[in-house]
Write a structure and sequence with these properties.
By secondary structure, the protein is α/β, with parallel strands linked by helices. The chain has 15 helices and 14 strands.
Length: 540
């Protein structure tokens, strides 16, 4: 990283710019917010991953400048928070949508929810910036320090308060599926660390050494070509690994010629609250699931919460289902479920997946185990109900969680791990501790997310689970991306969120368990420790 160019005049201009950032906090803070907004374009569905090269390099230089502040750690944390606000606020705008379901009552809370969500998620980037500033180095290893801190922040976000690992930095590259295959080895947090380090290297090219707390480095400094070459080779290496992995399995193999039909009713959430809205939705689902007697469809999949009434408890609904299904077909349907706890003498409400046979009888039931805070259960319920957060809930009152992830095998069909709604967003936690399934099943009601970025961001999270686990996924989502995905993340067949209809596709076969599937986030922690060790060894 020592080769230099002689771009006349630019080092002086850049040195003057850095000096202004060091001397004027308002410039640092404004730049942090602006570059964060630019970085938000990396999120799905825009996928301008190249903007992270600019945004993350700018963040390195801004943390450099924070070292001149009276309180360097606090200043770096505020710079990181502003960068995070810019990066998160547009990406989480969909959180306003549930408040418009009953707009006359709760629409005024939508801006509060969006701002609160963006500011809250930005705290993790603030933590990463402060943590990085605490162990900041003056040479090229500072990009590794930032990468370790960023990845540690994302790991924490995946676990704190039951976790919300939405819009991880690695998801920016899912539009080129070759670029995320390394997640099968090091997981999304480990690969995210690699991408943050690589994308930050232009900062080293522009400013090879930053000031220490006591002194400032000589200015101007030469522009280095080495870090740019290292970034190019690094990105090519990650992509090359993915291309080689995809080449091994050129086409997804069929899984015992099992054919699935997935439906998207394309019904807005507010329409379910109209008179007879749920009845019309149920009839629509039956119509979309209907196949001919000669059809080769083996499984029909309805989205999450196709009905808020308990399908299994309705004789009329089960009669319709039995009439819809052809011999040897199965229906996998999202439904509410009501159970009665005789010990406590109260009803328990579940968000469930119910498996029906050709007679309309229930074969298996899975109750969602990872519930959405403020959506399916409400902490400090009396307070949050007052301000309207219960509008995120599919039924009034808290839902009861199931017993955990499990593998379901029904009537000789391929086995699957059911994931209801956002259960699919958790890396390393989509398969139970027992038998490894043949595929992942994700049913979701993405109408809660509106018609903007939310449904597509949700899909990207689900798509990454196939890469990490080496398992195909069947995904049926109302007003979300409905698709069959092979075990390498490639889309076999897809139905867009705004499209009412059904798709039929042959279920791909699973691969052998990946290294990440076997070791989970221990692999991510190993990458963090390795990167941290390199930064310490070469800190200068």
């Amino acid at each position: 990283m020592s080769t230099a160019t002689s771009t006349k005049g630019f080092p002086d201009l850049f040195g003057a710019l850095v000096e202004q950032l060091e001397q004027r906090a308002i410039y640092r803070y404004g730049a942090a917010l602006a570059f964060g907004l630019l970085a938000s374009l990396s999120h799905a569905p825009v996928h301008l991953s190249a903007v992270l090269i600019v945004g993350l390099s700018a963040l390195v230089l801004l943390i450099d400048a924070s070292r001149a502040a009276k309180r360097p750690l606090a200043d770096a944390a505020f710079v990181g928070w502003l960068f995070g606000v810019g990066m998160c606020l547009p990406a989480y705008a969909w959180i306003a949508n549930p408040f418009y379901v009953e707009a006359d009552k709760y629409a005024f809370l939508a801006p509060v929810a969006v701002i609160g969500m963006g500011a809250g998620m930005a705290l993790f980037i603030a933590f990463s910036a402060m943590f990085a500033a605490r162990f900041w180095t003056s040479n090229w290893t500072r990009v590794l320090v930032l990468a370790v801190a960023w990845s540690a922040g994302e790991l924490l976000r995946g676990y704190i308060l039951t976790g919300f690992p939405w819009n991880l930095v690695v998801y920016s590259w899912t539009n080129e599926i070759e670029s995320v295959q390394l997640a099968s080895v090091v997981g999304p947090y480990g690969l995210g660390l690699i991408y943050v380090a690589l994308c930050s290297l232009p900062a080293v090219a522009l400013r090879p050494r930053c000031r220490t707390v006591e002194t400032a480095p000589p200015s101007p400094q030469p522009i280095l070509i080495g870090p740019l070459v290292a970034m190019g080779f690094g990105l090519l290496a990650v992509y090359g690994f993915g291309a080689a992995r995809l080449a091994v399995v050129a086409q997804p193999a069929a899984q015992a010629e099992t054919t699935v039909r997935l439906i998207n009713p394309n019904v807005e959430q507010r329409l379910k609250f109209l008179p007879n809205g749920e009845t019309r939705l149920f009839e629509q689902a039956v119509g979309l699931g209907q196949t001919s007697a000669s059809s080769d469809v083996d499984m029909i999949v309805w989205p999450e919460a196709t009905t808020s009434f308990d399908l299994a408890a309705s004789d009329l609904a089960r009669q319709y289902i039995g009439e819809m299904l052809q011999p040897d077909q199965l229906l996998l349907a999202g439904s509410s479920r009501i159970d009665f706890n005789r010990v406590e003498s109260r009803r328990l409400f579940h968000n469930s997946l119910q498996v029906f046979d050709t007679e309309g009888e229930v074969e298996q039931i899975y109750d969602k185990s990872h519930l959405v805070p403020f959506g399916e259960y409400v902490p400090i319920k009396w307070f949050f109900n007052t301000i309207g957060f219960e509008q995120l809930t599919r039924a009034r009152g808290a839902l009861t969680p199931g017993g955990g992830l499990e593998t379901i095998a029904a009537d000789g069909a391929p086995s699957f791990s059911p994931l209801i709604c956002y259960e699919a967003i958790f890396p390393g936690y989509v398969v139970g501790s027992g038998r490894r399934p043949d595929f992942l099943l994700n049913v979701s009601d993405d109408s809660w997310f509106g018609k903007g970025w939310g449904p597509r961001q949700h899909f990207v999270s689900a798509q990454m689970r196939t890469v990490e686990e080496g398992l195909p996924m069947v995904r049926a989502a109302n007003q979300g991306v409905t698709a069959v995905i092979d075990p390498l993340g490639r889309i076999v067949k897809r139905l867009e969120p705004e499209t009412e209809g059904a798709i039929d596709a042959v279920l791909p076969a699973p691969l052998a368990p990946t290294l990440y599937a076997m070791l989970g986030d221990w692999m991510s922690l190993l990458v963090l420790m390795l990167a941290g060790g390199i930064a310490w060894r070469f800190r200068g």
